[in-house]
Amino acid sequence: MTQQPAVVPVPTQSGRADGSQPSRRSARRRMFYIALGFLAPALVLLGALVLYPIIYTVIRSFYSPGGEEFVGFDNYVTMFTNETTFTAIRNNVIWVIVAPVTCTVLGLIFAVLLDKIRWATAFKLIIFMPMAISMLAAGVIFRTMFQENPNLGVVNAALVAINSVFSDDSAYPGATVRPDAGLQDDGGTISAPGVNPGSVQNFPLVGVKQSSLPANAAEAKEAPDPDSDAISGTVWLDVVQGGGGENGEVGDGKKGLPGIKVDAVNADGTIAGTAETNDAGQYTIAGLDGQGYVVALPASNFDQGYQGVSWLSSAFINGVVILSYVWIWAGFAMIMIASGLSAMDRSLQEAARIDGASEWKVFTRITAPLLSPVIVVVFVTLIINVLKIFDLVYVIPPGTSKPAANVIAVEMWTVSFGGGDNQGLGSALAILLLILVLPSMIINIRRFRQERER
Predict the structure, then answer these.
(1) Residues 187, 293: one domain?
(2) What is the DSSP letter of 360?
């Protein structure tokens, strides 16, 4: 009996051995399940870390501070009728207007100019280096730099040093009269009442370090006898370095105090005459025709002098905090724009130069338009960043200036965890911050999609 060969089913064009047509719906369902399996871990993380907190915060914003009572929109009403919230929103507007624009412009300038110098990489590294510092550390640095005391703050120390170069004012902070000299010290003004013309009135002072005396201070000398219409005297440091000398007497080793203003004051408080001590501390007030003058050393002689600017006060604190942000993030803008500049077709610039275009026209007509996609991304990213600014505003301002520098993120933390203990109002502020950030995020996402489709 002849054995028949086995018949092997041949797959049809549809892919099935039995020749039946597969269901497109089942194929799509299978692909969907496969994709869902791969995406499931990411979706779980997004739901737990992003979606759930947003939903919970929205719900929590409709409840009382402790979360026991539903209060509706009361927290939102409170938020928009609270003066501190208005200050925070105003400061956020200032941040959005100033900080991103400044960082983007500086980044563009650095990227274009440093592209033309020899040591561009080293300069870019220096400018970008603040990005490696945490915001908290940067805040501590800037708070120390802008301290009002010039002995602590480097900025005011530099201003005081510059002022001392261009100013001839002599000041002796802390100086006072020797207790047994028979003179009065009234609120810093040292005076001798009842002095008549033709007499000598001396002022032995203490409380000044020898090292603090001006370079032109010479050996103190007794003032010559004055004319009948004048009063003279000597103002000196009544201390001898190393010890010695007689208290209240001009002698060897005692220095005169130059540049001290001396006034002769009438009984009605008007100034009849004034003089300034020379290098030996001598003075003479002439042209006096009355009797019983008060010879006074005004308190301005003994103040601290120019001590710089109160940078951390309410008037300047926002500028200092924004400056610290620009110091950090200008490097980020520079690197991003420089990367776009390196990918740009340079032949267009060269062609424009060959046609006689100036560097300014090359920059405004070719370079800037070609860099506009990168510039927009950098600008929008910085807007999102400044809307959420917290660290610098929390660290840099001292206690008295914190209300003036307040922003939404700091206000949200303060009312929730910084003593306010109002989780409902804090949640409402968080939703406000989210609403403000969303438009910028949408713009950035659309920009990324447009770049991908090109």
Answers:
(1) yes
(2) H
